[in-house]
Amino acid sequence: MQINNNKNLTEANKAKEDAKRDFLRITNYLRLNNKRYSITLGKYKTLEEAQHSLKIIKKTYPNATLISNQKD
Q1: Which of 3, 20, 38, 72 is in the most buried spot, having the most CB atoms within 10 Å?
Q2: Does 65 reside within a domain?
């Protein structure tokens, strides 16, 4: 699940720290892809699990979206 997509590393790091504070039990990741920093949350085994989390996360991050094929 992506909550932020940014060109600026400083802003991306801040978004990552905010997500860590907002969702203590969900692992977050900072990835560089095509010269943009993406902040993603969690690893989900099923689409239903991801959709349930998305509803909760959208309350804090309204632009959150599900993304497929997340890789470490």
Answers
A1: 3
A2: no
